[in-house]
Amino acid sequence: MKTVVVKCGGSVLKELSDSFFSSMKSLIADGYQIVFVHGGGPEINAMLEKMNVESEFKNGLRVTSKKVLEAAELVLSGSMNRKLVRMLEDHDIPAIGVQSSDQGILQADFINKEELGFVGDVTTVNKQALELFLQAGLLPVLTPIAKGPNGTVLNVNADHAAGAAAYALAADHLLMVTDVPGVLKDGELIPTLTATETNELIETGIISGGMIPKVNTALKALKSCGHVHIVSGKNPFYEDGKWDGTLFNKEETN
Ligand SMILES: Nc1ncnc2c1ncn2[C@@H]1O[C@H](COP(=O)(O)OP(=O)(O)OP(=O)(O)O)[C@@H](O)[C@H]1O
Ligand SMILES: [Mg+2]
Fold this sequence. Notes:
With about 250 residues, the protein is α/β, with parallel strands linked by helices.
């Protein structure tokens, strides 16, 4: 069966349109099995503000102290995951929320403890556990919180988590759903990008902030995953085998 890993941005989770879910259903009707990973950026920021803790990012990654980690886990597992599962079920897509640190569904190691704190990069995915859900006809919805070394729990950028899941599942498509129609330049959608073109856009500052881990994940995923797309969750993104947004292409070799 063909697999799509969908990363749903916290940026757009509350604004997912009915047409987005129609596209999801078209994918299912076309024989794709789907695994979701979600983020929670804006809600985590709001929670930290309430706690009088400043949000700090380095290259689009959230610097994560113990306090920030607790807030992130509360928001991701307690609120965002619940919302997304309910929205899927409201659209008749059977889903199940999965706390990714359980059963080492996602296992991670520190990226740079001094600079970023409790931020991890996924090292192992418990593929068997995910396949059990899929075999039962359930769409697993994963939080980007991973089991770390020595009893720790690590915050993983949700784009990175989705990339790791796509790699582990040998997914045919990695779809990153966000609050913009794809990678933009001067407000215009860029329909296709290669690694060279993407790196130029990062160097010139056209790609910045949260788009950086997203495109870096896209380029990494291209090595194992047939198709990588960034699309908006506010619109339909798929119909009759046609995908909207920015598609990442492997570099042409002469
Ligand atoms: N060239 C660009 N094209 C499009 N968006 C860009 C670009 N450069 C930076 N961005 C920003 O990247 C944002 C998307 O990344 P962001 O991390 O904020 O959202 P997300 O990953 O969907 O959500 P979350 O991080 O909560 O999972 C856009 O809203 C936009 O502000
Ligand atoms: Mg993001």
